[in-house]
Every structure is written in structure tokens, then in C-alpha cells.
Amino acid sequence: xxxxxxxxxxxxxxxxxxxxxxxxxxxxxxxxxxxxxxxxxxxxxxxxxxxxxxxxxxxxxxxxxxxxxxxxxxxxxxxxxxxxxxxxxxxxxxxxxxxxxxxxxxxxxxxxxxxxxxxxxxxxxxxxxxxxxxxxxxxxxxxxxxxxxxxxxxxxxxxxxxxxxxxxxxxxxxxxxxxxxxxxxxxxxxxxxxxxxxxxxxxxxxxxxxxxxxxxxxxxxxxxxxxxxxxxxxxxxxxxxxxxxxxxxxxxxxxxxxxxx
Length: 261
Fold this sequence. Notes:
By secondary structure, the chain is α/β, with parallel strands linked by helices. The chain is built from ten helices and ten strands. The strands form two sheets. The chain has a six-stranded mixed beta sheet, with helices on both faces. It starts with 6 loop residues before the first strand and ends in a 5-residue tail after the last helix.
């Protein structure tokens, strides 16, 4: 895929600095719509920092500076006048550890629509909550427990609840930062199946250290590593099947096969 063809997100010459230290260097990447893009590479190579640039979650960190452009549907989201709250509605994040609110299952999913004025009355809100839970493959498990505290759910259910909470505000892109690292194998497979279903409607970007997960779940894989100046960069990117069977860069092959990292 050419850099600009069918890209939901187009990253051009991205550099990220913490004070005077460059953490991510010269990243150029096209992230397609309705596909899953996996970011892989050793710990500390800038994967999560890069991921958080896509909805500007690094902004509150003191000393953070971004150079380059990140275009979502051809709009540069790095411009200072961009409404960051609206950006984070459009580009939602699922974190490594499930983070449901200590409220009911219903209140968790209803939170975003209420805050953003998308509730539309009690009946419309209930429909939105149900629809979001169905899309997160959680409705059948919680439909009789909507008034119970979400912290009583299993970790896998909590993570799917967090995904439902995100879906309730109608995002365009879903970012996932190691979303299965705290889950058991069965819960992990449920999340992976859900990712595949959601990718029919959304662009999904996932950071993972699980090579089997990247190989199973993603369509496109970008390999990141530290450069000589200790900044993270993209070594190579391509269709996942190609990256895992015929990588062009020896470092990618060594990492995937466990000889490095």
C-alpha cells in the first residue's frame, strides 16, 4: 500500500521529544481503515509513545514536543487549535489494565454519552448502552447485571466493558495498548475475536508483545526498534503474513523468532 492510499491515519516524519531527548524518530506510517495494524518491537522502543500520539494523550506530560504531521482523514491533529476532547472521542484508547469506573455496568457505558450530550433521553440512552454492549460481545453476560458494580466483573469482562464504553461515543479509530496482557488465554481469545469483528467498522491500532497475537489478529504489522541515537523508529512495515514469514530486515526476523529483544 502506498503511503497515502486508503489511509485512515497518515503519519509523516513524526518525531517525539521529552525535553531534549528524542523518544520517537522520523516515523512514516499509513494506517488503513477497517484493518488491524499491530505495532511490535522490544520494550522501550517507543511503541506506546507513538500510539498515544494518535489521540494526543502525551500532551499532559511536561516537556513533550511533537514534530511532523498526523493526518486523520486528511486533518492534521497536531495543530494547536484541534479540539483534543473531540479528538479523543473519535480516537478512543483501550489500556493495558482494564479501568472500569467503580459504578454500575450501565453507568460505565452511559458515562460518555451523558457527558458529551449524546444520551438523547432515558430510552435512547438504554438503547445505546445495549447496542454498545452487544457490539462488545458482552450483552449476554451482563444483561441481568446492569445495576451491579462493574468491579465485580472478571478481568476479561471488564476489558470488554471498557471497549463498550468506548463504542458508546461512536469513535472512528480504536487504539489498544497491550489490551490482553493482564488476561488469561480464554479471555485473550475473546478480545482477539472481538477485535476482528470491530475491524469491519473501525481502524484499529494495537501494541502487543505477543507475537502469536500479532500474527493471529492483525492485517498489517509495523516493527519498531531503537536506533543508534536511542530513539525508536519503524524498521519495516507490511502485511502481517509477509512480515512474519518473509521479513526484509534481519532485525525483524531475529525479534519475531526470539533471537533478539
